[in-house]
Amino acid sequence: MLNRRPDVILYRCLDRDRGERLRAEHALLVIEIVSPGSETQDTTDKLGEYARAGIQHYWIIRLDNDGVTSIERYALDRASMLYKHLGTLMKDEAGGPPEITNPIPITITWDDLAF
Question: Is the pTM of this model over 0.85?
Answer without folding.
Answer: yes
